Structure formats: structure tokens, C-alpha cells
Amino acid sequence: MRPVLAYSLLFLLFVPALRAFDEIPPPFGFHWNDLTGRVETVLKGAKAKIVSREKKENREVWTVEGLVQPGLQRTLFTFREGFLVEVELQYEYPEWGIERYNDRMGEIRRYFDAKFGTGKLVSRSRDTETDVIQTLVGYQWLVGSTLLELFYFSAQRDALLFRTITVDYKMI
Q: What's the whole-model pTM score?
């Protein structure tokens, strides 16, 4: 009887930990299907500014600035029928070179790999056929009904250069 009791206790202790990985939660303490009103209240409390609200088909996309996190330039919150379904974080570090971006991508990828399992490489391309050189590298993690994507994008034309890292949390 003791082994059954011991296994039962172990099972009860680990079930909550297993359930935590049934999905990938959105960042900043939000939850999937949070209502627009709750998200707006939290953003106002964080002194973030909703700089635009766009309707696209059956979705509403808010562009938010002012969430405090190193390099975070803007965050896109997407709602379907008033419920949170996607959060995209857009990071830019103007003073960084390609090596720092590569290091940061590696850090973020290793963190997500450790937390959600090995990510799938979904893009690795470099387009040099036009006068704008474009590079795209992307990874995905699929957990339950949620998807996490990590992308590095750069575009360069002569001295003009744009680089960004995006982390996109989606309920699918």
C-alpha cells in the first residue's frame, strides 16, 4: 500500500508542473483570452501608451510603446472578438553590431529551448539579389494550442541598416 501512496503523492505533486506546459502563456502576466478592457487597464497602470488601434478583418491590433524592457521598441497586442490572441515583442538595438544580435538570438533561443523543448528552425535566408540585402532567421515552439516564434530580420542598403528581433506569442 505504501508504494501506491508514494506514487500517488508524486503524481499529485508533478501534475501541476506538467499542466504548466500545456500552453505557452503571453508575456507581462497576461492570459490568453484576456478582454481588451483588462489589457488596457494593465497597460495604463504600467504607464505604457497605446499609439494606434487598427481593425484588420476580424482582429484588432494595438501598437504599444513604453513597456520597460531593454531594447523593446514596441509591442503589438492582437485581439479577436475582444479577446487577446497574440502578443508580438519587437526589439531593436541601434548601437549593436551583427555579433551582438547573434549572441542575443542565441541566448533567447537557448532560454526557450530549455523551457519548451528544442525549437524548430523555420527560416534561414539571405537575399542578395537586389540592392537591399535581407536576412531572416526564425525558430518556432509549438506547445498545445500556442505557438512561440523568434525571428531575426535585417535589411541593409548601402549605409542604411535596419535590424530587429521579434518574439511572437500566439494562441492558435
A: 0.85
